[in-house]
Amino acid sequence: MKDTKFIIEYLYRDAGNNKLNEEAFIENPDGWDLITFEKWFKSKIIDGLWFNPLDFGLPKPSFPDYDEELDHEWCEFIQFREE
Fold first, then answer.
1. Residue 7 pairs with which residues in a beta bridge?
2. DSSP string of 8-77?
3. C-alpha angle 73-77-81 in degrees, rounded to nearest 5
4. Tens digit of each residue's pLDDT (9 = 90 or more) over 3-55
């Protein structure tokens, strides 16, 4: 089994359409290939696109000044890459 790590790219967009890009490493304890891992991940998120990064142990991008009118928990999945 390969000891591969994946990099996830995702986007935080607040209600004012301000954007922050994020990328983070995801461990691959089951040794899945990238396609299998991405299918699994997409099956766990809303419409294969929206997710709360904290649910997956990922950092949540945030702006320095929290604005309760604009800020929320959801991010948009962009893609996975293999390291």
1. 25, 81
2. EEEEEE-TT--EEEEEEEE--TT---HHHHHHHHHHTSBTTTEE-GGGGTPPPP--SS--TTT--S-EEE
3. 135
4. 678 999 999 999 999 999 999 999 887 889 999 999 999 999 999 999 999 99
Task: Tell me, letter by letter, the H, E, C secondary structure of 39-50.
Answer: HHHHHCCECCCE
The pLDDT score that the predictor gives to residue 30 is 85
Tokens matching residue 38: 């991405």
Place of tokens 């962009």: 78
pTM (2 d.p.): 0.88
